Amino acid sequence: MAATAADIDPPALVASTATSPSSPFVFPFAAATAAVGVSVLKWFIEFPHIPLLTEKKSFFNVYFAKYAWAWTSVVFFLALARMRHWPHERRLAALVRYSLATAYWITLTQWFFGAPLLDRFNREVGGKCALPGDVEEYHPDHLAHFRAHGARAANIAACRGHGGVWTGGHDVSGHCLLLVHSFLFLQLEFLVFGDSQNAHTRPEGSKPPAGDVVNDALARRKAASPFRAAKRWINALSMLWVAMLGITMMYYHTLPELVNGIIAGTLFSAVVYSPAHMG
After folding, report:
1. Residues 258, 261, 266, 267: what is their CA dihedral angle, to the nearest 10 degrees?
2. How far is it, in rounded angstroms, from Cα 167 to Cα 256?
3. What mean pLDDT is predicted for residues 248-263?
4. Whole-angstrom Cα distance, residue 277 to residue 100?
5. pLDDT value, residue 49
6. Using one digit for the tens of pLDDT, what is the confidence trace for 13-64?
7. Contacts of 249 (CB under 8 A, 6+ apart)
8. Residue 201 pLDDT grade (very low, low, confident, very high; cuts 50, 70, 90)
9. C-alpha to C-alpha distance for 252 and 54, rounded to whole angstroms
């Protein structure tokens, strides 16, 4: 039996329903609330240790959380290649925002004419590198080396590299920042402001004859398939970031460090994707 128009998704359902611009911002609010709840629970119970998930050298931490922006970049360019309904100007705007988002992440957590801004902040509020235990127990040469190099360490990683421990300061969670930043960037760029209503648009020459409702609906659905594929990739990666954020809350950082990381991860998208900039 030949398909009828009733058997085919109407054009309005071919592309995904547009998402409200405010919807992705529910995530950082929910994350901050969860951070409070988890921190309270940590006062009363100790979460079980899961080697494959909770260790700093676990597979997910080493190859996903630490390289979250690299994975975000891969999905960004794969999704951008499938936004066939976007005009050239829209693609260029996406690339500009991606460059700004990358610069924001680098400036805060990787490099800013030396130490990144978060590391500078950590030191300014009292963070410093010190030797563990009683300094009298160390060999004079070791002490001299540490005072010349370790005591001047600009961040926690450098401090550990010199055998020291970081004390004091305020270690804003870089994991929270990066995971929230990555989540919001992809969701807003493609699923909120991705013009999903026109994802089924096809070149004029490929349209079926007027009145051919069945073939037109099938063709529109086929044209929208690249957008649907991009949406699946974005949502799959977003779910992974949500899970990694939960692990960070359960096993690392204090509540203020978690919340400030979430705030820092939200700030870029709150400004760049605000109605003032997106229209």
Report:
1. 140
2. 16
3. 93
4. 14
5. 82
6. 333 445 666 688 899 999 999 999 999 998 988 888 877 777 777 777 888 8
7. 31, 34, 35, 38, 39, 176, 258
8. low
9. 9
CA–CA gap between residue 199 and residue 186 (Å, rounded): 17
Q: Are residues 16 and 199 in contact, defined by beta-carbon separation less than 8 angstroms? A: yes
The structure tokens 């100790």 sit at 46
Bridge partners of residue 130, in order along the sequence: 165
Q: Which of 49-63, 78-92, 174-188 has the lowest mean pLDDT?
A: 49-63
Query: Residue 19 and residue 193: Cα distance in Å, rounded?
Result: 8
Answer yes or no: is pLDDT of 5 > 50: no
Q: Which residue has the tokens 């086929």?
A: 222
- d(C-alpha 20, C-alpha 54), whole Å: 34
Is 28 within 8 Å of 265 (Cβ atoms)? yes
Q: Is the pLDDT of residue 184 over 70?
A: yes
Which residues face 129 on adjacent strands? 166
Give the CA distances from residue 114 to residues 23, 117, 121, 127, 161, in Å, rounded to whole numbers and listed in that order. Answer: 37, 9, 13, 17, 17
Q: What's the CA angle centered on 194, arms 188 and 199, to 5 degrees?
A: 150
Q: In three state form, how does the secondary structure of the chain look?
A: CCCCHHHCCCHHHHCCCCCCCCHHHHHHHHHHHHHHHHHHHHHHCCCCCCHHHHCCCCHHHHHHHCCHHHHHHHHHHHHHHCCCCCCHHHHHHHHHHHHHHHHHHHHHHCCCCCCCHHHHHHHHCCCEEECCCCHHHCCHHHHHHHHHCHHHCCCHHHHHHCCCEEECCCCCCHHHHHHHHHHHHHHHHHHHCCCHHHCCCCCHHHCCCCCCHHHHHHHHHHHHHHHHHHHHHHHHHHHHHHHHHHHHHHHCCCHHHHHHHHHHHHHHHHHHCCHHHHC
Rounded Cα distance between 256 and 258, Å, is: 5
